[in-house]
Design goal:
330 residues; alpha/beta; TIM Barrel; four-stranded parallel beta sheet; 15 strands
Length: 330
């Protein structure tokens, strides 16, 4: 076994995963969002990864960047506005794979949900798009873990810009390539996680949605994947699962997914806990304004009561308080 990485702190479940940073309070996937999450006590920061035309992995929720940057205000890039088929869906906009890193660095990040989170607009235009290497450096500096998601791996592999190899290479440069590394790699697809199983020893997480199925066609539906048999199959290549938070419950009672996943030897990190009423179940909403904040603390506490091993949240400060409260109650 390799010695513990001096640039990381031990993780103790349940872990608080800052979803795109403290994205409830800053534009997502910016260094500022990650720094705020770390200051609030998050154990892990999450960069979604997409490639540039020159093969650099950068942190964006999607490869289409019209929603999250000021690219539309750059006339020099007007000719790159286009429509592409991604995972069977037509998407129109500007795409990271059509820009070099140097070109992307001329853009500035902006709030993706300005109507819902108007306060975050005060930070529009202040930051560039970070690279994976920059996120790793930040994590090492502050001794937190990272939880990269490989976005649309089948699509990117098909256009010759696969993300698995560059991700593993970046982790190796960082010295983060063993089972104890402060890294979790996540994907909604199956086949790239199975490939990654042979490429790296870091922990792999199978993301699971409440509808449809993996874009790579590896399973007919996500529902099939959360049966006891499906979870056993996942355990052959993954360390854990990341189900939609709604999958933890069925008609107000536990669905059994946490119990069944643990029985298969898998950890459970549900997503995504957000404070706004729009994202909360009715029991946790406060007033009718979808932008208003409800009782996220109570929602997270209920999930912790089921024995989850960690969770994704846009509001790490609330998540840390809920997690610490659950630990104190044990």
């Amino acid at each position: 076994m390799q010695p513990a990485d001096p640039h990381s702190a031990p993780l103790s479940a349940p872990i608080v995963i800052a979803h795109r940073g403290a994205s409830g309070e800053r534009p997502e996937h910016t260094i500022g969002a990650y720094e705020l999450a770390i200051a609030q006590g998050a154990d892990v920061i999450e960069p979604d990864l997409v490639p540039t035309s020159d093969g650099v992995l950068v942190a964006r929720h999607e490869n289409e960047i019209g929603e999250t940057t000021d690219v539309a205000a750059h006339p020099e890039f007007a000719g790159r506005h286009t429509t592409k088929m991604i995972d069977g869906r037509a998407v129109t906009g500007w795409f990271t794979e059509d820009f070099t890193l140097a070109e992307l660095k001329t853009l500035r990040a902006r709030e993706r949900l300005p109507q819902l989170r108007p306060g975050n607009r005060a930070f529009d235009g202040q930051e560039t798009i970070p690279t994976l290497d920059e996120v790793i450096a930040l994590a090492k500096q502050h001794k937190v873990a990272i939880y990269p998601e490989t976005k649309h791996p089948t699509y990117f592999a098909a256009i010759g810009k696969g993300t698995d190899a560059p991700l593993v290479a970046a982790l190796r440069r960082a010295g983060w390539d063993d089972a104890q590394a402060p890294v979790f790699i996540q994907s909604f697809e199956v086949k790239n996680l199975q490939r990654l199983k042979s490429m790296t020893q870091v922990r792999l997480i199978q993301l699971i949605d409440g509808a449809a199925g993996p874009a790579d066609g590896a399973a007919q539906s996500y529902a099939d994947m959360v049966t006891p048999e499906g979870l056993k199959a996942i355990s052959a290549y993954a360390w854990g699962i990341g189900p939609s938070k709604a999958m933890l419950w069925q008609d107000g009672v536990p669905s059994g997914i946490v119990r069944d996943a643990h029985a298969a030897g898998l950890r459970v990190h549900p997503w995504t806990y957000r404070a706004e009423n729009q994202f909360l179940p009715p029991a946790y909403r406060r007033a009718d304004d979808p932008r208003g904040q409800g009782d996220l603390h109570a929602e997270i506490s209920a999930a912790l009561g089921l024995g989850i091993d960690g969770f994704f949240t846009d509001f790490p400060a609330i998540g840390v308080r809920a997690r610490n409260g659950a630990r104190g109650a044990q």
